TrEMBL record:
Pfam families xref list: Redoxin
Protein name as catalogued: Peroxiredoxin
Organism: Xanthobacter agilis
PANTHER family (UniProt xref): BCPB PROTEIN, THIOREDOXIN-DEPENDENT PEROXIDE REDUCTASE
Domain (Redoxin): residue spans on this chain: 32-179
Database matches in CDD domains: PRX_BCP
Keywords from the named record: Antioxidant, Disulfide bond, Oxidoreductase, Peroxidase, Redox-active center
Region annotation (Disordered) ranges: 1-22
Alphabetized InterPro entries for the sequence: Peroxiredoxin_BCP/PrxQ, Redoxin, Thioredoxin-like_sf
Species classification: Bacteria, Pseudomonadati, Pseudomonadota, Alphaproteobacteria, Hyphomicrobiales
Length: 189
């Protein structure tokens, strides 16, 4: 059985393939996304600063990962990334972040299980039809015939993307990297 909280030491590092180069400064389209708290969230209309970490898929106890999942650069680590944003949530809010969201193509029912199991203090957003991903041209990859989103973190201000973290690695350090960027701390990777 997989331990979704622990990352193997030999995970391959994703490389910057340029698939996110167009995102900084991009004004977001009006696309409401269903959240795990039952609301529809339009990222383009939020006032204040938002952090949206995009991830391929969370694992669930008793559900195996796709074959070769750990060998796909950037695939493994969704649960540790979510837990890191949970653990840094208060610090992010103190640094001026109004909203934190996780976003994947998994449906809301699946995301609800993860949000409850991981005790997340923020909502997860479902882009199960990939409307948002297509509109802003988020980087994707395909595994076992399913199109998933590559791991990327967006800082959104005034309906536009002000900063992008891509590729994100290691995933469990992403929340600390975002916090450092927002507070003028150590260099981000």
């Amino acid at each position: 059985m997989s331990d979704f909280l622990t990352l193997p030491r030999d995970l391959p590092t994703p490389e910057d393939d340029g698939a996110a180069d167009h995102l900084p400064g991009l004004e977001l389209p009006i696309i409401p996304l269903l959240s795990t708290d039952g609301r529809r969230v339009d990222l383009s209309s939020l006032s204040g600063r938002a952090v949206v970490y995009v991830y391929p898929r969370t694992g669930a106890p008793g559900t195996p990962s796709p074959d070769g999942w750990d060998a796909i650069p950037g695939a493994r680590g969704c649960t540790p990334q979510s837990c890191a944003f949970r653990d840094h949530y208060a610090d992010l809010r103190a640094a001026g972040v109004e909203y934190v969201f996780g976003l994947s193509v998994q449906d809301t029912a699946y995301q609800n299980e993860a949000a409850q199991r991981l005790d997340l203090p923020f909502s997860l957003l479902s882009d199960h039809r990939r409307e948002f991903a297509h509109a802003v041209r988020l980087p994707t990859f395909t595994v076992e015939g399913e199109v998933l989103l590559k791991r990327i973190t967006l800082i959104i201000e005034g309906g536009a993307i002000s900063h992008v973290f891509y590729p994100v690695f290691p995933p469990h350090e992403n929340a600390a990297q975002v916090l450092a960027h927002l507070t003028g701390g150590a260099d981000e990777t």
